[in-house]
Design a protein that fits this description.
Strand content: 15-25%
CATH architecture of the largest domain: 3-Layer(aba) Sandwich
Largest sheet: 7 strands, parallel
Structural class: alpha/beta
Helix content: 40-55%
Number of strands: 14
Oligomer: single chain
Number of domains: 2
CATH class of the largest domain: Alpha Beta
Shape: globular
Length: 420
Amino acid sequence: MKFTELNLVSPLQKSLEKMEFKTPTKIQEKSIPILLEWKDILASAQTWSWKTLSFVLPILNNLYNKRLESWLVEWKLDRKIQVLVLSPTRELAEQIWEVFKPLCTNTNFKSTVIYWWKNQFHQVKIIKKGIEILIATPGRLIDLLEQKIFNLENIEYFVLDEADKMLDMWFLPDIEKVIKLLPKSRQSLFFSATIPDKIKKLSEKILYNPEVINIKPETKNTDNIKQEVYFIDNAQKRQLLQYIIKKEEYKSILVFVKTKDDTETVLEYIKAMDVKCDNIHRNRSQNARNRALDNLKKWEIKVLVATDLLSRWVDIDSLSCVINYDLPQESETYIHRIWRTARAGKKWIAISFCIDAQKLKLAMIEKLIWKSIKINKSEDYKKELVTKIEKFWEYSFDNKKSKLWKNNSNKKRRYYWKNK
């Protein structure tokens, strides 16, 4: 099956074509037709199966059709919150919003995300302007509801994403508070990586005659990918990254980091080497992201630094190497990242940097992929670092009138007496 075979409106089809989505995953193929019929659902699938798109597409499709019908009666655009998506963490909430945004653009819907540690004034300002789709974490949602900033009386679609994580994080009382404020006539959707007994019990209280979908886990084949890990101190990451990038056999490199601020920092490290590079994160426009990605595919840049936003969206046939500058929070994300290289039977390399605090994460990743990742014990990058330091001190002592000497005079004295 292809997305073109699904009964989706033209604006959504155009968005999918633009984003190069052609074939739905198993969870999408099974859940989208059910949700288009306005039925409740309890769905389970792996993290990398793109569950989010499974509910985003049918919700926007149904909202779009309803709007067209209402316009036939009266030509008026009244923006009210009709979709509520609950997520356990702000990171997941942001990821869901990133999926909604490009699809909302073509269908003329407004959306926003709210969570703690984000300025309340700006959140409230956007909501009061009028939105149809609200993505939220339970704590911030209840806080704004108690302040009577808005209400949930017009909600038609309620989505509980990562439901198992919600209950693991003790959000059940908050979920029950929100449920009491929702209209009884609504479509409710539960999406989860697993369906334990506690999820079943909760679904019995909230869902009405739901369709149950359970996609069995599949392990992606990583045999075509050479995997290595360096056990390294955090302070040495930059030198190791620069050393790897210098290798001529890697024509195109994708570097994954933890946050958008990290993409800017690591980008500066690479620019210092006079290597053509760019970055992708959630604050960059869709045009800027597409341009950076196209440049990597065409080998017009050598290195692209990205957050996990990129790990679930694209395939890059021409990629030579993936570097996990930071190990991902979720083990499944590791497979998303390195799978960017495994195309058409080609053999490429995935290199990970692991500090002491992340060894447990590494063990979880190895458990997931059913294999031990080869440890690279090479310390050639350290030799190169020592050479640079020697040249630095030599230059400093030979040029005592230079800015380098003046700015680091105390360091030079300590170094001199220590090595006299």
